Amino acid sequence: MNGPEIERLIQLLGRLPGLGPRSARRVALHLLKKRETLMQPLGAALADAARAIRACGVCGNLDTIDPCSICADPRRDAGLICVVEDVGDLWAMERGRIFSGRYHVLGGSLSALDGIGPEELNIGSLVRRVAAGGVREVIMATNATVDGQTTAHYLAERLAEHEVPLTRLAHGVPVGGELDWLDDGTLATAFKARRAL
Questions:
Q1: pLDDT by residue (tens digit) across 99-112?
Q2: Torsions phi, psi of 137, nearest 5?
Q3: Phi and psi dihedrals of 63, rounded to 5?
Q4: Which one of 3, 14, 127, 139 has the fewest CB atoms closer than 10 angstroms to its CB?
Q5: Rg of the chain, C-alpha, whole Å
Q6: What letter would DSSP give residue 46?
Q7: Which of 156, 150, 149 is nearest to 171 (CA)?
Q8: What is the helix (H) or strand (E) element at residue 151, kind and residue range?
Q9: Per-residue pLDDT averaged across 59-75, rounded?
Q10: Where are the annotated C4-type zinc-finger regions (predicted)?
Q11: What secondary structure does DSSP assign to 17-82, as a single string?
């Protein structure tokens, strides 16, 4: 049996997404074998991140400054707001370098099954940002799930009185995708969203 420190390390690693008990044991063993070159620098980096990183008071992104580097960047178009569910979605959009506006992170999606209502999400500050003026378009980039769709529709209702154009990311056939490999829902959505060639 392992000592309590090793078991605690394994249990904490096992809480990470994608790591089950066996994977957590392998990672723990790897960290322990490389204490000076990996475990100690990783521990220091985790402690530094825990101290320095905070949520942006404007959009909800995670950064070491508030407002975050995206909200503070004068080259970003403040008139375009892309609404995403989580910070990971924002990071995915930034990785692609396809959007030059600003973001709004909801912190999840509406889910009756999980007991997540509008009060648990960062919706009030989005409404205030739009109501303050200067926003030319709000892009709904919520996930293509039932909860994501429900959230987008709820936001559309909340923002309707401000008369700001709302758009939604397209859904359907991915670039390089083959029809034979698509699920029925994706194929049906692609048919409904078809456009002139």
A1: 999 999 999 999 99
A2: -160, 140
A3: -160, 175
A4: 3
A5: 21
A6: H
A7: 149
A8: helix 146-159
A9: 97
A10: 56-71
A11: TT--HHHHHHHHHHHHHTIIIIIHHHHHHHHHHHHH-EE-TTT--EESSSS-HHHH-TTSEEEEEE
